[in-house]
C-alpha cells in the first residue's frame, strides 16, 4: 500500500471535524447527535472543552471574534494545528517535508496550564472582561 492509498483509506480527524461542523451547526441550539456537553450539563459551568466545537465552526466560517469568544486557547492554537496538518499532508501525499515547528517543552506546558486555568476558572467569572468569554448554555443542567 503506497502513501497515497494509505492516507485515503481512513479520514483524518481534521477532515472528520470539518464535515461535522458543515453538517451540524453547533451554534443553533438544536440537539446534535453527540448530545449535550457532559461537563456543562453536570456542573453548570464551562469546562476545558466547552465551546471547542463552536470555535471550530466559527473558524471554518471565518469568524475569528466568535471563535475566540467560545474557546480562546483553541483559536490561538488553530494556526499551529493547521500548519502541522498541512505539513503532514504534503509529506504523506507528495513527499515534501515542510520545516517542522518544534515548540519547547516549557512553551507547551505553559500553554496547557494557562489554557486549563483560563477555561475552567477565568471564563467562569461573571465580572468584567471575563464575562464576555462565558458561553451560554445550550442544554439544561442535569441536577
Detailed description of the structure:
The protein has 143 residues and is mostly helical. Helix content is 55%, strand content 0%. The chain has helices spanning 3-9, 13-23, 38-43, 52-60, 64-70, 72-94, 105-120. Helix 2 (13-23) packs across helix 4, helix 4 runs antiparallel to helix 5 (64-70) and helix 5 crosses helix 6. The mean pLDDT is 81.
Quick description:
It is built from 7 helices and no strands.
Oligomeric assembly: single chain
**Helices and strands, in N-to-C order?**
HHHHHHH
Helix run count: 7
Q: How confident overall, as mean pLDDT?
A: 81
* Structural class label: mainly alpha
Q: How would you sum up the major sheet?
A: none
- Radius of gyration, taken over Cα atoms and rounded to an integer in Å: 17 Å
Question: What are the defining features of this structure?
Answer:
143 residues; mainly alpha; 7 helices; 0% strand
Secondary structure: elements and pairs:
Layout: H1 3-9, H2 13-23, H3 38-43, H4 52-60, H5 64-70, H6 72-94, H7 105-120
Helix pairs in contact: 2-4, 4-5, 5-6
